[in-house]
UniProtKB/TrEMBL annotation:
Natural source organism: Anopheles christyi
GO CC terms, sorted: dendrite
Family membership: Belongs to the neurochondrin family.
Signal peptide per UniProt: none
InterPro entries found in the cross-reference section: HAD-like_sf, HAD-SF_hydro_IA, HAD_sf, Neurochondrin
Protein name: Neurochondrin
BP GO annotations: neuron projection development; regulation of neuronal synaptic plasticity
C-alpha cells in the first residue's frame, strides 16, 4: 500500500537519525543511494527520509561557504539542492515552512546564473528553479513566493540574464495568473522592461518557442495594470515588436495550433493598447486591421455555426478573444477614423453578419434551453461575452437580423439585468474599501455596455414593446440612481467632533480608478437619458400616467441643481436637464404651483440653455457664437440644445407661471439684447427661430415680459438721455441696456478704481458725439442706484434693536470693490460687528471656512450662531455644512410667489433650513431670546 514504508527506507531513516555529525550524515546519505530503489520511494517513504535528513542539515549545506580546498565552492549547495529537488514534488514537503524559508537562497542562486562560479555546474541552477517551480504549484507556496517579491526578481533575471530565462518567465506567468494585476506595483518600468525583452524574443524567434511566448505574453497582458500600462506605454518599443511578431504569424500559412495563440495575443494587445495599435503600418495602416477583423469574424463563425452552447463554451477562450477584437473594431469603425472604400465595407459587413448570425443561433438555442437559469460561472461569463459583442454590433446595425434579435431580446434583458444588480451590489458593498485591489474586480455589468444598443432598439416598435413588457424602464431607473451616486461624487462626511480640527485640511485627491469610474458613469447617464427621452417621446401616454416616470422627474428636480458646475459634467447636465423638460411637459397636469423643487431645477436648466451662445466680443461684436465652455462638446449637445429650447417653449404654454423664471433671471432680457446686437443675416436661422418661438410663447404666457428691460436705474438714465440730450427713445433704451450688460460683468479685481471703470463703461456705450456725458451719467446712475438700494427706516430700526442683544455679521459673495462700495454707501458698518467679502478671502459661500472665519471674528462658537439668507445653495447649505446653531431662509420674491404655502418637507434635505420667513421684519420674533442685554466691548465691535 502507498502508506506503507519499505524496510530499506526504515533502515536508512534510522541510520540518518542516529548520525551524530554532518560527516556521519554525509556517509549515511551515500548508504541511501545504495540501499533504496526507486520502487521503494512512495510518498510516505519520502516524507520519512526527509524528516530523518532534517532541514537544519540541508540549510547548513545551502548557506555554508566553508568547503574543502580541493572541492568546488558550490559543492555543498549542489548536494542540498539535489536532495531537495527529489523531495519537493510532494505538496507537504514543497510547502514545508523550512522549504519556504529557503526561497531567498534559491533566488540568490538563480539570480547569479551568469557568474563564473556556476559555469561548470549548471545543474545547480536547474535544481534551484525546480524547487521554486514546485513551490509555485501550491497556494501557500505562491503566497510565500509573492511575499519574497519573486515576480520582481524573476523579471530582473529575464531582462538582464541570458541563461535559463524561460524558467524565470514560466515562474512569473504562474504567479501573475494567480495574483492578477496586484502582481505589479505603481511603477510600470519593470513591466515595460520585461515586455520589451519578451516581445523582442517573440518577434525574432521563428521556432516553436514563438508560440509558447505568445501564450505567456497573453497572460502578462491579461493580468497587467491596464490603466497604468495604457497611460505610460507611449515611447515604448514593445508594442511594435508585438505587432511585427503577430503580423508575421497571421500572414503566414499556419495551422490552428499556431493561429489560436496569435489571435488570443492580438485580442489582449488591442484590449490593453487600443485598436489603434493595429494601424502600425504607415504605408497601409488598415491592412492588418482588416486582416485581424476578418480572421476573428471567420473564427467566430467556424466555432459557433450550428453548434450548441456547451460546444462553444469548450472553445470559450478563443471565441472570447475574437469577441474582443470584433467589439473594439466595430466601435472604432463607428468613429469614421478609418478610410474604408466600398469594397472594404462590403467585405467587413459580410464577415460580421456571418459571425453574428452564428452567434445569434447559439443565443436562440440557449434562450430556449431549460438550463439557462442554472448556468455555471464559466458558462455565465461566456454568455455575458456573447451579449456584450452582440450589443456592440446592434448599436451600429439595428436593421439586420431583426427576427432573430427579437427572439432573444427578453433573454438578453434578463442576463443584462442580473449582471447589473450583481455588479451594483458588489460595488456598493465595497465602496468603503480603501485598498487599491486590482485582483478583486467587480462582476461584469453587461447592462452598462448594452445601453447604446438599447437606445437604438427602443426606436423600433417591436423592440420597444418587448422593452416595456419586460419593465426594463424600472431597471434603467435603478441604473441611473447608481451611476449618479458615482458621477456626482461627494466627499465622505466629517464627524461633527472633528469638523473644526479638519476645517483647513485639503480635500483628499481621488484615485485614477475613481476618476475613471466617474467618467464612465457620466457616459452611462448620457446613454440612459437618451433611452428615456426616446421612451418619453414615443410612449407619451404611458409616461404621462407612469408613477415611475414621475419618480424620475422628481429625482431630476431634486438632484440636478446640486451637480457641480465643471466642464466634465456639461454633457451629462444637458441631457438630464432636457430629459427633465420632456418629462415635465408630459406630466404638466400633475405639477403643483407650491412645488419647491421645480424652482431650482428650472433655474439650472435656464442656465444651461442661456450659456450656450454669446456675442463674440473679442473678434466680431455683432456675431453670435457657441460659448467657449460649450465648444468642445457642442457636437454632443447641439441637437439637445434645440430640443431643450423647443420643449421649454411648449412647457411655458402648459405651465404659464414658469415664465416668471425667464423674467426674474434676466434670460428674456438677454435674448432680446442678443437679437438686437447680432448683425442681420449672421444669426443662424435655426437659432433665430428657437429664440423667437420662445419669446413668442413667453409674451403669450406673461404680459410682464414686454417691460422687462425697464429696470429702475436703467429707465431713469434712458429718460435722461431722451429728454435732456436729444437721444431717440430707441437709442436711449439701447444705450442704457448696453451699459447694464457691461456693468454685470464687473471683474473681481479691476485694474483701475471702480468709479473710473464704470465711467469708462458709459463712455464705451455712448455714441461718439456724446462720450463727454460719461461722468455725468455715471454720477446720476449711481445716485439713483443707491436711492433704490437704501435700507427702509423700519429695517434700520430692526437692525439697531437686534444689535442691542446680538452680535451681527454679514458674509457676502462678490467682487471686493463693488461689495465694499455698497457697504460704505449704505453705512452698514454701524449695524454689523463683522463684515466679510468673499473676494478678500480664499473662500466663498457655501464653503464652511468662510462661516468659521465669521464665528472667529465674532468670538462665538458656530453652534451659537444663526445664518439668515435668501439663497439655499449658498447661505443655507453653507450654514448647515458649517454646523451652525440654526439657519433661516428668506426666499427671493420669485420663490415666494411660486412656492407659496409650501411646507418644510418640500425643501431638499441637504439645504433644508430650520425656519422659513417671508419678510425680514419677522426675524426678531423668530430668534432665540437673549439671556441678557449684551455689554458692548471693543473686542467684539
Amino acid at each position: 500500500m502507498s502508506s506503507e514504508v519499505s524496510e530499506p527506507i526504515k533502515k536508512c531513516s534510522l541510520i540518518l537519525k542516529n548520525a551524530k555529525s554532518d560527516t556521519e550524515k554525509f556517509a549515511a546519505l551515500f548508504m541511501v543511494t545504495k540501499l533504496i530503489k526507486g520502487k521503494d520511494c512512495n510518498q510516505a517513504g519520502k516524507r520519512l527520509l526527509f524528516e530523518s535528513i532534517g532541514f537544519d542539515f540541508l540549510r547548513r549545506l545551502l548557506t555554508s561557504k566553508d568547503v574543502p580546498d580541493d572541492c568546488p565552492a558550490s559543492v555543498y549547495q549542489s548536494v542540498a539542492l539535489s536532495i531537495l529537488s527529489c523531495f519537493c514534488d510532494d505538496e507537504q514537503l514543497a510547502t514545508h515552512q523550512d522549504m519556504l524559508d529557503s526561497i531567498p537562497v534559491f533566488m540568490g542562486i538563480v539570480s547569479t546564473c551568469d557568474d563564473d562560479e556556476y559555469d561548470d555546474n549548471l545543474i545547480i541552477i536547474n535544481e534551484a528553479y525546480h524547487c521554486l517551480q514546485s513551490i509555485s504549484l501550491y497556494e501557500s507556496g505562491r503566497l510565500a513566493l509573492r511575499q519574497h517579491d519573486v515576480i520582481t526578481k524573476m523579471a530582473q533575471v529575464y531582462t538582464q540574464r541570458s541563461f535559463q530565462i524561460d524558467e524565470a518567465l514560466t515562474l512569473i506567468v504562474t504567479l501573475v495568473a494567480r495574483f492578477g494585476a496586484n502582481s505589479w506595483d505603481n511603477n510600470p518600468k519593470l513591466f515595460h522592461a520585461l515586455l520589451q525583452r519578451v516581445s523582442l524574443d517573440f518577434e525574432t524567434d521563428h521556432a516553436e518557442r514563438k508560440f509558447e511566448l505568445a501564450e505567456m505574453i497573453s497572460s502578462l497582458l491579461f493580468h497587467c495594470r491596464r490603466d497604468l500600462v495604457a497611460r505610460t506605454v507611449q515611447g515604448e518599443i514593445w508594442p511594435e515588436c508585438l505587432y511585427k511578431g503577430i503580423s508575421d504569424i497571421l500572414k503566414s500559412k499556419i495551422g490552428k495550433a499556431q493561429r489560436d495563440p496569435a489571435l488570443k495575443l492580438a485580442a489582449n494587445a488591442v484590449d490593453v493598447l487600443g485598436i489603434e495599435w493595429t494601424l502600425h503600418d504607415v504605408e497601409n495602416p488598415k491592412k492588418f486591421f482588416l486582416l485581424l477583423l476578418q480572421l476573428a469574424a471567420i473564427e467566430v463563425r467556424m466555432q459557433m455555426d450550428n453548434k450548441s452552447f456547451n460546444q462553444c463554451v469548450q472553445q470559450g477562450d478563443l471565441i472570447t478573444a475574437c469577441f474582443i477584437i470584433l467589439e473594439l473594431s466595430i466601435n472604432f469603425m463607428s468613429t469614421d477614423q478609418l478610410d474604408l472604400d466600398q469594397k472594404d465595407k462590403q467585405q467587413v459587413y459580410t464577415g460580421l453578419k456571418g459571425a453574428f448570425s452564428a452567434l445569434l443561433g447559439v443565443l436562440v438555442k440557449l434562450a430556449n434551453d431549460t438550463k439557462k437559469d442554472r448556468l455555471q460561472k464559466t458558462e455565465k461569463a461566456f454568455a455575458y461575452a456573447m451579449v456584450r459583442v452582440l450589443t456592440a454590433w446592434l448599436a451600429q446595425e439595428t436593421s439586420a437580423m431583426k427576427n432573430q434579435v427579437s427572439k432573444v431580446l427578453p433573454f438578453l434583458f434578463k442576463l443584462a439585468n442580473e449582471s447589473f444588480y450583481e455588479s451594483r451590489d458588489y460595488r456598493i458593498a465595497h465602496k468603503a474599501d480603501n485598498v487599491d485591489d486590482h485582483e478583486q474586480q467587480p462582476p461584469a455589468d453587461i447592462l452598462r455596455v448594452m445601453l447604446p444598443a438599447i437606445c437604438h432598439l427602443v426606436v423600433e416598435e417591436e423592440a420597444r414593446q418587448i422593452f416595456l413588457k419586460e419593465k426594463e424602464e424600472q431597471v434603467l431607473y435603478d441604473c441611473l440612481l447608481f451611476h449618479w451616486s458615482i458621477a456626482h461624487y461627494k466627499k465622505p462626511p466629517v464627524p461633527r467632533a472633528e469638523r473644526l480640527k479638519r476645517m483647513n485640511e485639503p480635500d483628499p485627491e481621488m484615485t485614477p480608478q475613481q476618476l475613471d469610474d466617474m467618467k464612465d458613469s457620466r457616459t452611462a447617464i448620457v446613454s440612459l437619458c437618451n433611452i428615456l427621452m426616446n421612451i418619453t417621446v414615443l410612449e407619451a401616454k404611458l409616461v404621462e400616467e407612469s408613477t415611475l416616470f414621475a419618480q424620475l422627474l422628481r429625482f431630476i428636480f431634486e438632484n440636478l441643481p446640486e451637480l457641480k458646475d465643471i466642464p466634465d459634467n456639461l454633457v451629462m447636465h444637458g441631457h438630464l436637464a432636457v430629459l427633465g423638460l420632456l418629462l415635465l411637459k408630459q406630466q404638466a397636469s400633475k405639477i403643483k404651483k407650491n412645488d419647491f423643487s421645480i424652482c431650482r431645477y428650472i433655474q439650472t436648466t435656464i442656465r444651461f440653455l442661456w450659456d450656450a451662445y454669446n456675442i463674440d466680443e473679442s473678434n466680431d461684436p455683432q456675431a453670435l457664437v457657441v460659448s467657449m465652455q460649450y465648444k468642445e462638446h457642442w457636437f454632443e449637445i447641439m441637437e439637445l440644445w434645440f430640443l431643450g429650447m423647443q420643449t421649454m417653449s411648449g412647457i411655458i404654454k402648459l405651465i404659464p407661471w414658469i415664465s416668471e423664471f425667464a423674467i426674474e433671471s434676466g434670460w428674456a432680457e438677454g435674448i432680446v439684447e442678443t437679437l438686437r446686437k447680432v448683425k442681420i443675416g449672421t444669426l443662424p436661422p435655426n437659432v433665430k427661430l428657437a429664440y423667437e418661438d420662445f419669446l413668442s410663447q413667453l409674451v403669450d404666457a406673461n404680459p410682464a415680459v414686454a417691460p422687462v428691460l425697464k429696470k429702475a436705474d436703467a429707465l431713469k438714465v434712458a429718460d435722461l438721455l431722451h429728454l435732456e440730450h436729444g437721444f431717440s427713445r430707441e437709442l436711449a433704451n439701447e444705450t442704457a441696456t448696453n451699459y447694464l450688460t457691461a456693468f454685470r460683468r464687473c471683474p473681481d479685481n479691476p485694474d483701475v478704481a471702480i468709479s473710473q471703470w464704470r465711467s469708462q463703461l458709459w463712455q464705451d456705450v455712448l455714441p461718439g458725439t456724446h462720450k463727454h456725458l460719461a461722468s455725468e451719467l455715471y454720477g446720476r446712475w449711481l445716485e439713483w442706484r443707491y436711492r433704490y438700494l437704501a435700507l427702509p427706516v423700519e429695517l434700520q430700526t430692526m437692525l439697531q434693536t437686534l444689535r442691542l442683544q446680538y452680535l451681527l455679521g454679514i458674509i457676502t459673495n462678490g467682487p471686493t470693490a463693488a461689495q465694499w462700495e455698497k457697504i460704505d454707501r449704505l453705512a452698514l458698518n454701524k449695524y454689523f460687528d463683522c463684515i466679510l467679502v468673499s473676494s478678500d478671502l480664499p473662500w466663498a459661500k457655501p464653503d464652511r471656512n468662510i462661516f468659521y472665519a465669521a464665528c472667529h471674528y465674532l468670538g462665538v462658537p458656530p453652534g451659537q450662531c444663526v445664518m439668515i439668507g435668501d439663497k439655499l445653495e449658498t447661505d443655507i447649505q453653507g450654514g448647515i455644512e458649517a454646523n451652525l446653531g440654526a439657519t433661516v431662509w428668506l426666499p427671493l420674491p420669485t420663490e415666494q410667489r411660486i412656492v407659496g404655502d409650501r411646507t418644510m418637507k418640500d425643501v431638499p434635505e441637504h439645504v433644508r433650513p430650520d425656519a422659513i420667513v417671508d419678510s425680514v421684519l419677522k426675524l426678531p420674533a423668530m430668534l432665540p431670546l437673549s439671556t441678557s442685554f449684551r455689554v458692548r466691548r471693543s473686542a467684539q465691535s
